[in-house]
Amino acid sequence: MVIDTSNFSFQGIGVVNSLDVLGCITLDAFNYNPAATVDDGSCEEVIEGCTNPFATNFDPFANTDSGDCVIDPVAIIPGCTDPTAWNYDPNANVDDGTCIPCVYGCIDPLATNYNPSATCDDGSNPCIYFVDCLGNQNGTAVVDLCGVCNGNNACMGCMDATACNYDPTATMDDGSCNYLFGCTNSLYIEFDPNAICDDGSCSTLISSATGCMNATMFNYDVSYTIACQDASGADNGTAGPPYICCEPVILGCTDPAATNTCTNNCNTNDSSCTYSISGCTDPTANNYNPLATVDDGSCTYSISGCTDPNAINYDATATVDDGSCTYAPQFPIGILVPGPNCTGCTNPPSCIGNTGGLVFYVFQPGDPDYVSGEEHGLMLNYAGIQDEKWGCQDLNLGAGNTWLNVTTSEDLFEGENNTTNIVNTCVDSNGLPLPSLGVNISFSNYCGWTDWYLPSKDELLLIHQNIGQYQGPGFTNCTEAWCGNGVANNGLNIGFATDPYWSSSQGSSVEKAWACSLGHPSSPTFIAQGEFHKGFDKNRIQIRKF
Questions:
Q1: In the chain, what are the helix, strand and coil shares in percent, each to the nearest 5?
Q2: What is the pLDDT at residue 401?
Q3: CA distances from 487 to 25, 345, 440, 503, 525 (A)
Q4: pTM exceeding the 0.85 threshold for the entire prediction
C-alpha cells in the first residue's frame, strides 16, 4: 500500500507539505533565506567587521564585511607559496600565480649527466662525474692505443711478418717496418753493408775464424768455425776478465752521452739510459730552467745600478735601474748664476750683489723639492745687507710691548713658508703688510728675481757649512771673503759680516728669533744659542730656490 504523505504534518521538522522550503526566515539574520517557507532554526546573528584576512584589522569572527578594512601594502608579499615549486618563496604570503613546477635532475654543469632543463636536484637522480680508467674522479689517466689504462702504447710495433724487424707481440702497427735484408756479417763474402736484418744469406767465409761459439754469450757469432779457449783452456769458457774467449752479457746503459752510463763494463744496452738537459739551474737567475739537469753557464742575473750613460755613476754592467743615478751639477756649489735682468759679472766679489746669486746647495734625493733628472737647489744674494729688526719696523719692539708672534719652522727648506707667515702676520688694521724684514725680502727684486725669502735657521747653517767650497774667480781659497773672515779681496771687503744674520725661525719665546754668525767659519754652531731679541739690529741675507 502506498501512503500519501503530501498532507501529513511532521512535528519537530515543521514541514507542512512537500512544497515547504527549510531555512532561516528571520529578515535581519545573517543567513536569511527569502526562499525559505519554514524556519529550521539555523538563523545566525549578523556580526560586522573586516573579513579580509590580509587586512591589518581582520576580524576572524565577522561574517559581514563592514567596509573599513585597512590594507598594509608592506604586509602583502606576493610570490610563489607552493613549497614544491622551483621558485617557492618562503617570504611570500600571497600566491601570485607564478609558481613553476620543479624539473628534477642533475643541475651541476661539471657532471656527465648534467641536465640543462633541470631546475631542482632532490638527490633522486644524483650527478655523475668523469672517472678516469684508474677510478679517480676527474682524473687524467686514459686508456692508450693498446687499450691499457695509463699505458705507453707498448703493443705497437711492426706487424708485417715479412719485415726484418717484425714484432710478433705487436697488436698495432706503428709504421716502423724495415725491409733491408742481407748478410750482415763482414766475415762472409756475401756481406751487405746496407743490410739491417740478416736473412741468412751469409755462406762463404772469407777465412776460418776463431771465436765464441756459445750462443748465450755477448760476443757469440755464427761465423766462427773454431771455438775459442779461455784462460783455463776450456772451449767457449768465460775465465777472466779480461775475457779472452766468451764474454757474458752484462746489461746497462752503454751510451756515453747518457747521464747514467754504466761503470760495470756493461756491453748490452737495456734502454735504461737517461739524458741531461742543459740550461740554467740557478733558481735566482732570470733564465732559470726548472727542467735543466746540467748547468751550461748560461745563467743571467739582474744587476741593480744606474743605467743612464749620462749619469756620473753610470754602471755599464747594470741591467735594472735602481734610481741611484746622480748627475754632475749644472750649477755646482759656489757658481755665480746671473739673473734674468743682469748682463753678467766678471769679478764675483765686486758685483755679486747686483748680478744674481751664488749657489750654496743642490737638492739631493730625499729632499722635498728633488726631481730626478733635473737640477734644483738654493742660491743666496748679498744685496741689501744691512742692520734691520726682525719684526714689524713701525712697532715699538722695546721691553714690555707686544711682540710679533708667528709660528715658524727651523727645518731645512722651510724658509719660504716662514717668510710668507711673517708677511701675513705683520699687517695693519686693513690687512696690508707692514714693513718688516720678511716683507722687505719677499717683495724685493734683485736682478729680475722676485721670489727671495728669509732663510730658516737650518738653511742659514747650511750656508755656513758650505762656505769655502767655491773656488772660482776672485775666491781662490778659504782665506778670502767668501769664507766670511772679513778679509778684503782685491780691495773689496764684501765677505760675510761677523755679526749674526737673521733667520726666519722664531726662537723659544715670541720676542726672540734665531740668528747665525756666517763670519766665523771655524764655529759650526749658532752663537749665543742663536736667539736674539727681535728688536735688535742684525744683518740680513736672502735666498731663493732655482
A1: 10, 20, 75
A2: 53
A3: 139, 21, 28, 24, 21
A4: no
